[in-house]
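Lab notebook, bench 4. Still working through the backlog of constructs that have no structural model yet. Next entry is a single chain of 521 residues. Request: give me the structure tokens for it.
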Amino acid sequence: MFFNKTYQWMLWDAANKCLPLLYKLKNIGPNAQLIKVHRQNSTFVVSDCHSKGRHLNAALEFIQLANFFSNGSSTILDYIDRTQNIYCRDNFNGLLLKAATVIDQDNITSNIEIEDILSRSHKESGVAAFAKYHYALFCILRERFNFTVKFRNARGWAGKLGNSSLRLGYIGIMQRNEADVGASASYNRINRFDFFDILHQGWKLETAFIYRLTPNIGYKNLKGDFFAPFHIYVWFIMGGICLLLTVVWMCIEYMVSKKTDQFTAVNVIPVNVVGAICQQGMDPSPMGISSRIISLTTFVFSLIFYNYYTSSVVGGLLGNTVEGPSTIDAIISSELKVSFEDIGYYKILFQYNKTPRIRKLLEKKVLPHRGPKDLPVYTHLEDALPYVKKGGHAFHCEVVDAYPEIAKQFDVSEICDLRVVFGLLESELLNFVIHKNSPFTEIFRIVMRRAVETGLDKRILKQRQPEKPPCSNLYTVYPVDLTGTFSAFIFLAGAIVSSLVLCCIEGLFKVQVQVFKCQLQ
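Model written out:
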């Protein structure tokens, strides 16, 4: 672990007998800074020593710098600087390295199959988008250093064997140093820093639920509820004010009628109050100045509230802001049926993550039985999008995988109806890793840094991370469903029932009056 760019070693081998010792050291690699000095006749020969990988049985390479007494020390130091940089050690001459990757498909073992799948530009089932990005980074290293590779494919990224500490999948392969370099990615976890060196961080993992906003998702749309513009206590206050206006008006009319001997029917005043609030006028007109002041202020009061009310309703119907479930908890509480991409890290999530939110998601959305016509819990993107398009389904996947397929299958208005809900998995930069204290760590890091500086990394990201298809509509009018109009229908039904009850009471009262008259006669 000390044969790296931090330490400069000098082996003073006057008798030139230390070669067997050097061949036993398996940690000498392309990062080693080792100067060997041995005696040859009357001079000392200074040589740079390194290997492309002794643990891979690569040969030790000696580059003679100078004879100690024939050149000055400054010339020797200049030669050392030249021979120990990357340009003198970047050709591995076809050295065979082992690499690990993740393809969640059956019977994928050969290099030809693995590289063919990872190099395709379109979405592949069982292959994460970030796996193809890190494979592209791996190809940069392979072309730069001229090595060959033997791939080892894992079906998943992590996991443990039973109750043991043996790690499975890609993380286990890299941790046990069974691969020299990875062609996939790793999450940032504190317990992994002891096992991996990070070569590069470029891909930000973003997974989310994708669903289409339709009336059949069963989520309360407040902008379609005709009682929603005002809070419930505002409605109660307005009702109390109307009742108070009616009582005060009746009292005023009663006092005015005592003075003028002109009495307004009591049952007309409540109708006039309703007419003033609805801005429909009143008949007969108020007689006194006080009654006219009340009617005028009632008109102004209703006008102000009417403006607030109509602007809120119209703005809600024409607005294109986010509606529907916008959090993971809202997704769980809604009537949306959820499915997940059939890929390893979701199964690991449900197996090892026991947080309250995950348990609630399992109980309400994952474990309940599904019919033969329902979308399975784990499915592929191309099978899930038709259900998402129809509505009532939410599909969780890496968003950059879904965007190209959405652009193909959805029209403009349907794209505007799509909603994306993040939060189930952490959104963070993934690590391009190599085993801890690997002889390739520093030399590979240099190439990754050069890829960032020259814009090559940005170009790969642009190819692998397509943007969400744009919504071209200026606004979308969402129809008011039964949930939004339910309160209005209840109000109307209550009025109808009340009128029927009163009608029956009036009829019974008239019958009783007729019976009483007949008895008197």
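Notes after review: DSSP finds 17 helices and 14 strands in the chain. The radius of gyration is 39 Å. Flag for follow-up if needed.
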